[in-house]
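Worked Example 4.2. Consider the chain below.
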Amino acid sequence: MRPHLPLNALRAFESSARHLSFTRAALELNVTQAAVSQQVRMLEERLGTTLFKRLPRGLGITDEGRALLPVLSDAFGRIESVLKQFEGGHFHEVLTVGVVGTFAVGWLMPRLKSFRDAHPFVELRLLTHNNLVDLAAEGLDFAIRFGEGIWPGTHNELLLDAPLSVLCASEIARRLATPGDLVKETLLRSYRADEWSLWLDAAGLEPWTINGPVFDSSRLMVEAAMQAAGVALAPPCMFGRELQNGLLMRPFDTEVSTGSYWLTRLKSRHMAPAMELFRDWILAEAGGMRLAA
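Applying the procedure from the previous section yields the following structure tokens:
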């Protein structure tokens, strides 16, 4: 059975191996050089092998020491990472959420203070995406995405319906007396090619060929619309401030639904306490918005 290995000896070796110096390790660990040397020698005796070659200037690490170093560095790094999450007697959990950009700016950002005030010990990390996301590969606890709520291997909960409507700058809106007037305008497109055809059909018009620029972000597309570069088709619920401030106009009531916003997580992902707090909070916020609508 492997004898007990003192933590101080392992720490002394790991620091000495990184610096290739007992003296620098002693400074890092705030002990004497002799103490570090003694701890390393004790570890070598316990393991029955030599970890360092004592050279005239500094140290050389042996093959055995080279095999041990990355394991210890990783272990000590992980311990330090967890210890940093303790502050004032509380454990700070990290929660990583991938959010489609339009939802992040148009809905989530104005509400983040509410979550922070309610849960100050959750460190929320937000990563934006354009609706293409791999929760496992990107290490995400949750993703907020747009669609029909059908993604393999995930558990999906409805946040908000987000029907699309025509949005444009006021100078363009003044030219649009009827939906048919759109034929004279530049129609901005998302990567979902059928949106304008669906909307025109809902407005009672025969769809026509649309050649406007294509955007991979609805947020960017609507920004172009605010600059009068064309007419966008986007969810008004994500641009409430811009509509209220007159930066955008919604000339027609016609809307078409092509998907909703969903909170998704891997089915295999264990729900940590921070995940439960975020889930409960965002579902309550979204539910309140649906009731108000």
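The CA atoms of residues 26 and 177 lie 79 Å apart. The two ends are 68 Å apart (CA to CA). Compare this with Example 4.1 before moving on.
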